[in-house]
Amino acid sequence: MNYLAKTFSRGSLLLAVVCLMATSASGQSTRKQLRTANKFFNKENYRAALPYYDQVLTADPNNAKALYFAGISYLSFDKERSADYLYRAAELNPKVDKELEYWLGRTDHINYRFDSAIEHFKNYQKTIKPRNVERKEEVAQLIQYAQNAKREVANPKDVFVKNLGGDVNTAFSEHSPVISSDYNYLLFTSRAEGATGGKAAEDGEYFEDIFETTRTGEDSWEKPRIVAGGLNSAGHDASIQLFDNDTKLLLYQSINNGDIMVSERQSDGSWGTPKSISDKVNTRDFESDAYITPDGSTLFFSTSHYSENGDLDIYMVQREKSGNWGNPKSLGRTINTRFDEDSPYLSADGTLFFASRGHNSMGGYDIFASKYDSVARRWGRPVNLGSPINTPDDDTYYRLAPDGSYAYLSSYRIGGYGEKDIYTINYIKNTEVKGRVLVMGDSTLTLPGVELIFNGVQADNRPISYRDVSKPDSATYSVNVLSGRNYQVQLSLDGQVLETQEVEVPVVLDDTTTVRKDFFVTLDDTTAARIARLAPDAAVGEFKFENIYFATDKYDLRPEAIQELDKIAEIMKANPTMNISIEGHTDSRASDSYNMTLGQNRADAAFDYLVKKGISAKRMVTVSYGESRPAVPNTSADNMQLNRRTIFRVLERDEIQKGKEVQ
C-alpha cells in the first residue's frame, strides 16, 4: 500500500470514528429530549412537551414515537395537525403503540372523518382485554358519538356560526361569554397570558381568569383586560351570568373543589369580593356552572355532589320567603344521564338549554334544549340543537343575547384561533331580492313578462324554489328567499328558457336587509323580435295588433285568425294592466241593422276565444260599427274582404272602468 493510500485509509477511519461519536451524542440528546417531552406529556402539559418533540423530529424526522406523542398533544389545540402527526407515525410504524388505533379514531372523529373513526375504534375494540369493561364502554360510546355526528352533520340546520374574532379570542381557551343587557359590555373567561399572578396551572397553561371588554362596533371590541379588583383569585375563575340589572355577577371559583359565587358591582364600577351563593348549593364537591332566573326565584346549577360516579348533573333550588335558597332538587333522569350535564340556561320562553356528554351527543359536550310540561310536571325529551351549532368536540356555555336574536357559545372549531373560542349563533333569515330584467348591451331596454325561478337548497340539501314575473310597466321583480346560499335562477318567457344564471345571496341576520340584483339577458334575433312587441314602456296605442278577417256573412274564426288571437293573448298575459277594445266591421252588402248584428258577432267571436285563453272578460270591451267605418271603399270583392274584419285597440287604463268607448 503506498503512502497516499495509507493516509486516505487513516483519514477515513478517523472520520468514521468522529461520525460514530457524533451519532452517539446525537442519539443521547434525542433520547434525553424524548424523555423530557414524555415527562411533560404524562403531566398533560402538552404545550410544554411539544417543543421537545419538535426538537427530536428536527434531528430525526422519522421518529415514530415523537410523531405519535406529538399528535396526541396537538389534539388539545390543533386538531388538524394532530391527524397529520398520528397518520405519519402509523405509516412509519403501525405498531408504534398499542393505543394507536384509539388515537387515530379520536383524531378522525374530531376532524369529521366519521366512517374512518368508527373503523379505527372497532379495530381498537378487538385489542381490549375482556376484564377492562370501563375501556370497552368508553370505546362503544365513542362509536355511538361518531354515528350521531355523521347523522347530524348530514342534516345541518340553517344557522350561521361566526367566530367572535381576534379582539377576544386567542390561541388559548376562551369560554363562558356573558353579555350585558345593552349588548355593549362583555365578560368572558380566558386562559390567555396575563392571568392573575402570572402563574401556570398544572397542565402548563395559565389559570382561567375573567376578562372584560367593551364593544366599539358591530363586530369589534376593545382590547380585553383582566377584571381588576378581587374578582379573580390565584386559581381558576370563570364568568357565569350578569343579573339584577347587571349589578350582580354569578361566577365560578376553584375554591373548595369548585363553588358558585356572587359578586356585586361597586359604586365606582368595579366588582366586589365574591361570596358563596349558598351552602345549600355549594358542597365539598364540584359545582361548575349556574343560572338564576330574572325574577331571582330559581337557580339551576351543575354539581357532582349527588352523583354515584362523580359525573355532573343539573339541579335546581327555589328561593324561600326568607330570601335563602331551599334544598336542591334534581331535574330528573330525562335531563341527567350517567354522563356529564353542565351549563344550564333558561330562556325567556321557558326553554332549558344545557350541555351534555350523554343523550345523542355528537362527541364531548353538545347543546341540548328541553321544555317543561307543566301539566305532566316533567321536562320534555332533550333535543340536540344539531350541526353546525354542535360539533364533534366540546360545545358549551350556550347563552342567548338579551333579545334572543342570537346566542353565544364556546367550542373548538376548525379555522379558529387555537383552543376553544367564543362564537355567535344566528338563525339565517329570509331576505328580499329585487331588481329588473334587462337586455344585455342595452340597459334602457327592459323585459316584461319574464318568469324568474330561484332554485336552491336548504342546509340539509332539501330543494327550495321561489318565483316571480317581471312587471309589465317596469320589468321589475321581487322574491323573498332564504339567505346565505347560491341560487340557480332560470329566466323564461312563455315557457321557453332564455338562460340560467347563478346568484349568491349573502347571509342576512335581520328582517330589513334587501339585496339588489339586475339580470341582463342575451337575446337571439327571434326572441328579440318577439320581445319588442311586449315592450312595457310602449305608449298606449303603440302596440300593433293585426286584424282578423271573415268570409261573407260569417263570423267563424279562420285558422289564421286563431293564430293572431293566440299572439294577442300572449301579449295581454305579459302585460296584465293592458285593456283592449274589440271592434267588429262588415262590408256593405246587407242592411245597416243586419250588419250591426254581424259586426257584433264577429267581435264576440274574438272576445269568447280570448276568454277561453285565460284573458279576463273585465279587460275587454266589444263594439260593432257594422258597415259605417270601411277600411277601403266597397267597390270590389277584394276591398269588401278587407272590410269584413275585427280590429283590436289598446284602451287607456280607465276606459273600461268608466264604461267609455272612444268613437
UniProtKB/TrEMBL annotation:
Residues 537-654 form the OmpA-like domain. Residues 1-27 form the signal peptide. It is found in: Cell outer membrane. GO terms for cellular component: cell outer membrane. Pfam families: OmpA (PF00691), PD40 (PF07676). The keyword Iron does not apply. CDD domains: OmpA_C-like. Keywords: Cell outer membrane, Membrane, Signal, TPR repeat. TPR repeats lie at residues 30-63. PANTHER family: LIPOPROTEIN YIAD-RELATED, STATOR ELEMENT OF FLAGELLAR MOTOR COMPLEX. This is WD40 repeat protein. It comes from Pontibacter mucosus.
